[in-house]
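Entry type: protein chain
Record version: 2
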Amino acid sequence: MKVGKVIGNLTLSQADSGFRGGRFIVVAPQGKDELSGKNPDGHSDGWTLVVYDNIGAGLGDDILYVEGAEAMQPFDYRTPLDAINVALIDHYQYEPPI
């Protein structure tokens, strides 16, 4: 699992029927600078990704997501998916190793 911050929503005009009940969000992965507060806006300078969300993450929420084959595990059939939100984070504490 990886930590990310929701920075946007993605709207689709059509999608696979297996995605009913969920939506897609744009997520900025969180590294040690974002988690420790050195980067206070929480947006990493690197890439962002699109994550399927069916648990209701909102803009600015911290989440846990998984990528790859594990992202398809909640579905009964092969689903074209690279990343899925698996948890909303209420609070975290991170101190980078010295």
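Comment: The two ends are 23 Å apart (CA to CA).
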